[in-house]
Amino acid sequence: MIILGFESSCDETGVAAVCTERGLLAHALHTQIAMHQEYGGVVPELASRDHIRRVVPLTRQVLEDAGLQMSDIGAVAYTAGPGLAGALLVGASVAQSFAWSRHLPAIGIHHLEGHLLSPMLADPRPDFPFVALLVSGGHTQLMRVDGVGRYELLGETLDDAAGEAFDKSAKLMGLGYPGGPALSRLAGSGDPTRFELPRPMLHSGDLDFSFSGLKTAVLTRVKAAEAAGGLDEQARADLAAATQAAIVDVLAAKAIKALKQTGLKRLVVAGGVGANQLLRAKLDAALKPLKARAYFPPLELCTDNGAMIAFAAAERVKAGLATLDPDAHGFTVKP
Ligand code: KG4
Ligand code: ZN
Fold first, then answer.
1. Which of 58, 153, 187, 311 has the greatest number of C-beta atoms within 10 Å?
2. Ligand 1: which residue has its CA nearest to atom 10?
């Protein structure tokens, strides 16, 4: 069965075609980053309007790239939540309309399940069971994954998400939006030891996280630098490197703790922060002596995309966990 998937939960419009037997056939993505940049963050109203503009051309492109006709599609999938309500409604409405017009099932997918299973689009594909470190702009969670739909929450952030910590710290340093990629680029030319920053909850004994204190610590350093004449280029790079090191240290330490606690040897890293090269390098190095292995989604599929939504739906169909009744419409996941 070929599934056409739509993602529109935030500032990326993603469309993809995934075959339950052959995997990803084609995907197309439009990111609104440039549009939101001048506001320093996502403007929900603008996001919704842009999804409307992009979704049909992207769908055409996917069908063309995959050599598909509309009649080849067997089911439609869409991000049902969580996300910006108006933005979600664009993808949900287009998907449900497409499904209704062709009498196909419409499968609502939880955005985080999309991220969670996205490393399975990479080669090699991790087998179940695995520990998943889900690190996006809105979530930071450690989960035990025993199969499709079999997820156990092991720990999560008590306040800010890891991506939020990157974004907010970057903003304090006067870097652009989104802050994560900008901060990590600048960190490349910085000395992570010049500024000492806290590693919140590193020794808390559980698998939870907290990042709001880190943001406050960054603010204190920025204010001190401003009082002393301003944050020069090198100091900004050093502070970026220190911030990145602090976030990555905590994420890596807790992920390793989760592997030890569960006795599992596979760690899957998903979500936008999974694109961070220091996190990837640190985990790769730390897992080797434990005879464990980290799996990451292809870089282009770390941030939001339609491929992960179509793929999660395909996995649900294969596991018998999707409702395939074309008349059973519903906005199944609360946004
Ligand atoms: O998964 P995602 O695209 O959207 C959500 O569902 O939230 O994640 C976006 C987050 C943003 O906070 C962004 O700054 C962060 O991922 N991010 C990064 C990197 N690339 C994206 N953070 C650190 N290093 C990166 N290279
Ligand atoms: Zn996401």
1. 311
2. 137
